[in-house]
Amino acid sequence: MTPRAAVYFLIILFSAAFSSAQESPYFVTYDHHMEEPGNLEVETFSTVGVPRSGPRAYFAPYMEMEYGITAKWTSELYLEAQSTRGDSTVFTGWRLENRFRPLSREHWINPVLYLEYENLNEASRIQKEIVGSGPEFAEPNSELRHTRAHELETKLILSSNTHDWNLAENFTVEKNLSQNEGFEFGYSFAFSRPLGTLASGKQCRFCRENFAAGAEFYGGLGSTNGFGVRGNPHYLAPVIVWQISDNASLHFSPGFGLNHESNRVLFRFGYSYEIREFGSRMARLFGAKP
Amino acid sequence: MMRAAIVVLLCFASIAIAQNYDYKPDPNWRAPYSAVAKPNPLASRPEATPGGKKLFLRNCVECHGEEGTGLLKKHAADLQLPAVQQQSDGTLFWKVTNGNPDRGMPSFSKLPELQRWQIVLFLRTLSFQSSGSK
User: Do residue A71 and residue B106 have CB atoms under 8 angstroms apart?
Assistant: First the structure.
């Protein structure tokens, strides 16, 4: 990490310490807060990666539709794509994930179980999670797009709220059902805090309560063919979210590669919009009585 | 690929339609004694109430309505009722924090602690509104 990057990171940390946004600022790490039942959150996120050498910079946008089925069950659909400078733009596939919160009350540590099915090709670079040795960068999109991967991914999500800080830890296991790659592993840790803990009485865009900041650490842990932190990508990424209205937020995270296997930087940014009462609206659309 | 995406979208739509909004008061939704006895740290700061109203409108109004009377279709509690207003600040804070996920009330632990207390502060003002508004 460069000295300038370290200064930016410290500034964000410092501001967090003095300081409400409700949206989680994390891009990779999950906490235990579920989507509210009946609400649909539509999110458009992007990952811009700048590799250290060799392959060119890429842009990987993805759309996420998160629906609260019940207060303990959230489901999400992802559609993703990727564009590499000087190469091509390809649709890289879709994912369907489910998160279940087994315990009804808040505890010191709140577990959430996560199960995801992925139907992707090898050109996928959104890096919503990093497992094994990370995505493939050496081959051109024209070749990668033909290699399909049907994958199952599970996570153990542990998350705690203490003194307005959120601490979250995720451990990921992924199995490619299309190829014999063994089980691949990944991790992420994150912490965040709202910049303002008391809500002002007026509607305001730039109040401190509308911002939350923190940091994520995430990376690959190899596979059953070779487990460990060495030889796999790892990132440190400050994160910030700005709640621009009651149901919309902007997210930003500059991630810094911590070793040679990582990209030099991974910029992540996105916009999310929550459609309240989506379930009831859909029900009315299909003829249910109000 | 497109067909698969459409199937998944339809699955989402069917899940949304199949939701059960039936609500019955849960006699087992009780705050522990340590929570019941907690005082509201903002009790002497009425100027924090408008912030509580803003949070209520942002987070609670979908189910409880702007007046807090509870939407029938959501089977949500009428927050003006004595059965609610007679509960201690600590109890209301505990219920906002933990929710009752098995009955459809989400947890609002994602809000900072003071903001949850602000919501409790605002809930107290609901009892002074017209009781005939339901």
Answer: yes
